[in-house]
Structures are given as structure tokens and as C-alpha cells.
Write a structure and sequence with these properties.
With 84 residues, chain A is α+β, with helices and mostly antiparallel strands. Chain A has one domain: Alpha-Beta Plaits, CATH 3.30.70.20. Chain A has 2 helices and 5 strands; from the N terminus they run βαβββαβ. In chain A, strand 2 and strand 3 form a beta hairpin. Chain A is globular and about 30 Å long. Chain B is of the alpha+beta class and 394 residues long. Chain B has one domain: Orthogonal Bundle (Cytochrome p450), CATH 1.10.630. Helices cover 46% and strands 8% of the residues of chain B. Chain B contains 16 helices and 10 strands. In chain B, the strands form 3 sheets. A 5-stranded mixed sheet of chain B has the order 1-2-8-5-3, sandwiched between helices. Chain B has a 3-stranded antiparallel sheet with strand order 4-10-9. In chain B, strands 6-7 form a two-stranded antiparallel ribbon. The longest helix of chain B has 24 residues. The chains are: A alpha+beta (84), B alpha+beta (394). At the A-B interface, helix 1, strand 2 and helix 2 of A face helix 14 and helix 16 of B. The complex binds protoporphyrin IX containing FE and iron/sulfur cluster. Protoporphyrin IX containing FE binds next to helix 11, helix 12 and helix 16 of chain B.
Chain lengths: 84, 394
């Protein structure tokens, strides 16, 4: 997601970020079913994902993180102020 | 009491409302507890998880010579299992169809809303018949391409098959097995026939995808198609009904957690995981070792019957903090509700979306509701455990 541009807007932008601990990920692909715009299976094994989660996918990513059988998906809600 | 009678006591219908004290007794006596009938019962988390990942453990009833026909992939070992699961996954999930389940969300929400239309304050309703059963049946019919109005037909077959598959002490089930075999043949024939009608004229359903696969290397044989379609239709609804019903029951028994979820609906995905731990729809699964194996110091001989009590592993204090507490925000919740290892539930993502949609939409109605009977009447099945009815006053 893009942060809001230009200085001085009072509103903060909450941006969700994901990190997958690929040493724990066992490729069960539960996350791909639940948030296919964010997680993608590459071939049989490799997992690709977007680190910055678009707003309209945040709920799906929360579901994916809860569903990961090895709890490899870490979520951070980063608050960045509108003026950086 | 005698720990060799635990399986008999767990499967006794009188234990259905609350088997959890027996699971505690099992873990105390364990990890491996031989039963009077010669089988081995295991109820501790770490041993169950290890055996679910152990390639020496077979899920195939032919390993003990129990049946002659080739079972569906739920009960096959790799590499046969892997081949069929991968083929069955092509029209359902990644890598070939990553958006299929996600694309059902709108329809699941619509069916849920329709079912809830008649839920008016003051009425008495049955969560099972009025809500938790019709939702997954409608969804799996839509997905497979089975006419919804045929439900009375396949319900009878499904009942017979689920009864035959239940765990019971060895093994007075000849009658159930015969009825189950008959139902499997009839249901398989019915589903293959539906699929054949779509040959050359495919819809967007999974039966169409199976019969119209252009690559011969990726085609199911007719026998495989029958077994796979029967498995998907049954597994697609017989378990999800229990998750939604157990969820409603658990929330009504924990009003403070119900209130919390109404205030913090973003907790719902984690609450569903906690339900899969705390009141799982599938309580036990059977396996057979290909070779003599040692489990926590106990020798289990080749071809013995091993029963893994998943629901007991979910309550193991060696793995979970305060395991008997229902905590929708529980951290580190690697439950066994969908199994683990190569047979990890194929339909888990769909079941999760259905349960989240169903419970999320039900929450506002549960605020002023109360249980008419507690405990409610349970289904006979010990392996697929859940209420037969759940009457509540809105
Ligand atoms: C809350 C609902 C559900 C629960 C609790 C559940 C539970 C399970 C469990 C515990 C297993 C592992 C069995 C074993 O290791 O022997 C399993 C396997 C399976 N489930 Fe589910 N299930 C659910 C919903 C579904 C749905 C909706 C479908 C189909 C769309 C489905 C299809 C399957 C299949 C095909 C397998 C066999 C997987 C394999 O052998 O590789 N399940 N399920
Ligand atoms: S659900 Fe978890 S284990 Fe599976 S692919 Fe995604 S991150 Fe990896």
C-alpha cells in the first residue's frame, strides 16, 4: 500500500506488513488459499509473498496467519505518519 | 479404572457429551496404552504429531488386509496418496487453482444470510438443522456440481459410510461394513454418472473439471473418480457441521468470550482455530505400522491397530497452557484439528471460511440466546463427534 503523500495530513496510515519465516514454512499453502493476492506458490515448494499488504487484503492476511499450521506468518501493523 | 478399557469407555455413547476426562486418564496412563482388543491408543500431543509425520505409519486398510478395493486418498500411503491428492487439488487449490476457495466467499456469505433470515428474537431454532448442516451441504454441492435437491439421497449413503468408518473396539462391525460398502458403491455410481453428464459440456464445478481433463497423465480412472468424489462430498460437510455447531455451543457456554468476540470481531479467525483445538469435529484417526516401531519406550508390533486421539492431544498440558480453557486469543495454537503431515485436511481453508462466515453472522443473534438443553443430544459417532441437535432460544 502506498503511504499517503504530501506533508501535514493529520491522519496516520496503518499499514500491515507480513514476514514469513521461511525456515518454519512447510509449504502447506494454507495461506495461498485464504489470501491468493498476497501469497503465491511457486512450483511445488517455494512460497512468494508481498511484504506490504494492500488494505483490502488485510482481513484475508489475518485469516492466513491464523491458519498457518506452523505459525510461520508474522504480522506487523506499522503506523507511519502521513508526513515522513 | 482399568486403562485397557479406555477405548471402550471413550466410544461408549454415554461418554459423547464429555469425553475429555477420559482423555486426561489416557494421557496419565500413556503415552502408549494397549487396549483389551489388542489395539494401541495414544493421546499425548508430541507422540501423535510424530506418528502423523512418520512414513512407517500406514493409513491404508489393505496394510492389515482389511479390504480389497483401493480406498480414497484419505486412506492411501505415498506415493499413491500424493498422486491422487495432487490430481484432486487441481480444480480446488494452489498451485493450479489458487483462487477457487477464495472466490466462494461471496456465495458463502449469501447462503449464510439466507439461512439467518428466519432467526427472529423469541423463536426456538435448531442450530444443526436450521443452520450448521445446510450451509456446508449447499457449499460442497455447488463446488462439486451435485444438485442440492439430491440431499436426501446422498444423506442416507453418507450416514451409512460415516457409521462404517467410526472407531470401535475390535470389531463387531460386520453389519456396518456391509451397509457401508453398499453405500460406497451406490454413491460412487451416482457421482460418476453426474460427472459423465458433464463430459464435453463442462460447468465450473469440480466433477466437470475431473472428467474434462485434457492431459491423459492427469486423468483419474473411473474407480478413482468414484472414490475421490465420495470422499470430497462426505468430508466436505460431515465435519464442518460439527465445527459450526460446536462453535455455537462453546460460545453460549462462555458468555464472556462471546461478548469479547462481538466487540473484537477481528479475533474470529483465531477463535475458529481455538475451536478446532478445544472442540474438534474429528476426535480420532487410525493408523497401522508397516514395521515394528518404538514409541516412547513401548514396542508396537507391525500391523497392529493404532488409534491416535487427536482431541486428546489438543488438551495435552505438555503442549498447551491451561488446555481446558477456551481462549479465542490463544497464542501458538498448533492444534491437531485438521490432522498433520501428509494427510493434513485437504479442505481446511474452505472449512475455515465457512466457519468464520457462519459464526461471524451468528454472533449478533447469540447475544440474547440461551441453550434449551445442555448437554445437547449427540450423534452416535465417536470419531466425528458433534451434537445431533442444538436447540436454542433466541
Ligand atoms: C471443520 C471441518 C473439517 C475438519 C475438522 C476436518 C478434519 C480432517 C482431518 C483431521 C483430516 C486428517 C485425517 C487423517 O489424518 O487420517 C482430514 C483429511 C481430509 N479432509 Fe478434512 N476436515 C474438515 C473439512 C473438510 C472439507 C470441507 C473437505 C473438502 C472440501 C475436507 C476434505 C478432506 C480430505 C479429502 C481429507 C484427506 C486428505 C489426505 O488424505 O491427504 N475436509 N480432514
Ligand atoms: S500456510 Fe504457513 S506453512 Fe503453509 S505455505 Fe503459508 S506460510 Fe508456509
Amino acid at each position: 500500500m502506498l503511504e499517503s503523500e504530501g506533508g501535514g495530513t493529520a491522519e496516520d496510515v496503518v499499514e500491515m506488513r507480513t514476514v514469513v519465516d521461511l525456515t518454519r514454512c512447510q509449504g502447506y499453502a494454507q495461506c495461498v488459499f485464504l489470501a491468493p493476492e498476497v501469497f503465491e506458490l511457486h512450483g511445488e515448494e517455494g512460497l512468494l509473498y508481498a511484504t506490504a499488504v494492500p488494505d483490502d487484503q488485510a482481513e484475508r492476511v489475518r485469516q492466513a496467519a491464523a491458519a498457518c499450521p506452523v505459525q510461520a506468518i508474522l504480522l506487523g501493523e506499522e503506523v507511519s505518519s502521513g508526513a515522513r | 479404572m482399568d486403562s485397557a478399557t479406555l477405548l471402550a469407555r471413550i466410544t461408549d455413547y454415554a461418554s459423547r457429551p464429555n469425553p475429555y476426562p477420559l482423555y486426561a486418564e489416557l494421557r496419565e496412563a500413556g503415552p502408549v496404552v494397549q487396549q483389551a482388543d489388542g489395539s494401541y491408543l495414544i493421546g499425548t500431543y508430541h507422540e501423535i504429531a510424530a506418528l502423523l509425520h512418520d512414513p512407517r505409519m500406514s493409513a491404508d486398510p489393505r496394510t492389515r488386509g482389511e479390504v480389497a478395493h483401493k480406498p480414497p486418498f484419505l486412506r492411501l500411503d505415498d506415493p499413491e496418496h500424493h498422486r491422487l491428492r495432487t490430481l484432486a487439488m487441481r480444480p480446488f487449490g494452489p498451485p493450479h487453482s489458487p483462487r477457487r476457495v477464495d472466490s466462494m466467499r461471496g456465495e458463502i456469505d449469501r447462503i449464510t444470510r439466507e439461512l439467518l433470515q428466519s432467526f427472529e428474537a423469541g423463536r426456538q431454532i435448531d442450530i444443526v438443522d436450521d443452520f450448521a448442516y445446510p450451509l456446508p451441504v449447499t457449499v460442497i454441492c455447488r463446488l462439486l456440481g451435485v444438485p442440492r435437491e439430491d440431499e436426501p439421497l446422498f444423506r442416507a449413503w453418507s450416514d451409512a459410510l460415516v457409521a462404517a468408518a467410526d472407531v470401535r473396539p475390535e470389531d463387531d462391525s460386520a453389519e456396518e461394513d456391509k451397509a457401508g460398502d453398499q453405500a460406497r458403491m451406490e454413491m460412487g455410481g451416482y457421482l460418476v454418472n453426474l460427472a459423465e453428464q458433464r463430459r464435453g459440456d463442462p460447468g465450473d464445478d469440480m466433477l466437470s473439471a475431473f472428467v474434462n481433463e485434457p492431459d491423459p497423465a492427469l486423468r483419474l480412472t473411473q474407480e478413482e473418480l468414484a472414490e475421490t468424489a465420495v470422499l470430497l462430498l462426505i468430508a466436505g460437510h460431515e465435519t464442518t457441521v460439527n465445527l459450526i455447531t460446536n462453535g455455537s455451543l462453546t460460545l453460549l457456554r462462555h458468555p464472556e468470550q462471546l461478548d469479547r468476540l462481538r466487540r473484537e470481531p477481528e479475533l474470529l479467525p483465531r477463535a475458529v482455530e481455538e475451536l478446532l483445538r478445544y472442540e474438534p469435529p474429528v476426535h480420532m484417526r487410525g493408523r497401522v505400522p508397516h514395521a515394528d516401531i518404538d514409541v516412547a519406550g513401548t514396542e508396537i508390533p507391525q500391523h497392529a491397530s493404532v488409534i491416535l486421539a487427536l482431541a486428546s492431544g489438543n488438551r495435552d498440558p505438555m503442549r498447551f497452557d491451561e488446555p481446558d480453557r477456551f481462549d479465542p486469543a490463544r497464542p501458538d495454537n498448533q492444534h491437531l484439528g485438521f490432522g498433520s503431515g501428509i494427510h493434513l485436511c485437504y479442505g481446511g481453508p474452505l472449512a475455515r471460511i465457512e466457519a468464520q462466515a457462519a459464526l461471524g453472522a451468528l454472533l449478533p443473534h447469540l447475544g440474547g440466546a440461551s441453550l434449551v438443553e445442555d448437554p445437547p443430544p449427540y450423534r452416535q459417532n465417536a470419531m466425528l463427534r458433534g451434537p445431533r441437535h442444538l436447540p436454542i432460544q433466541l
